[in-house]
Amino acid sequence: MQYAGAPLIALADDDDAHADVVCAWLEALGYRMTRFPTGDALLEWAASSPEVPAAVLLDVEMPGRDGFAVCAELRRMAAYAHLPCVLVSSLPAATLEDGARVSGGSGSMRKDASLLPRLAEWVMDAIPLPSSADASALEAA
Q1: Structure pTM?
Q2: Confidence label for 33 from pLDDT (cuts 50, 70 and 90)
Q3: Could you say which of 80, 95, 105, 111 would form a disulfide bridge with 74 (CB–CB 3.0 to 4.6 Å)?
C-alpha cells in the first residue's frame, strides 16, 4: 500500500516487461515509482523536475546513453550527487561492479532470478518507508 509521502524511486529501463515487474514489486512494498524508457529521458526529467527521488535504478544496456553514463551524469547534478543509484544488468558480475564503481553508482545487481528479493531488501534498508503513524499524519496534512 502506498502512502502520499512514500519515497519516490526513479527507474530507467528499456525493457517494458522488466520495468513493469520491478515497478509492481516496489509499489506493492509501498514505494512510488516513476519510470523512463531510456536514461536520456530520466536525465531530462532530473534536470527539470522539482521532485528529486529517494533513489535511482538504472538498467545498464539501454538505447542512447547507457546506465553507467547516466549515473555519471547524475553525479554531476547537485541534487543527485549523493543519491543512492543502483545499476542493474545481465552483464558479467565483475564488469557490472567495475562499471558501477567507476560511474559513481551506489551498487549493482545482476538481472537474475534473485533480483527482486535482493532489490526489495536493498530498497527497504536504504530508503525506509514512513511508519504507519507518520503516513497517517502525512495523509491528514
Answers
A1: 0.88
A2: very high
A3: 80
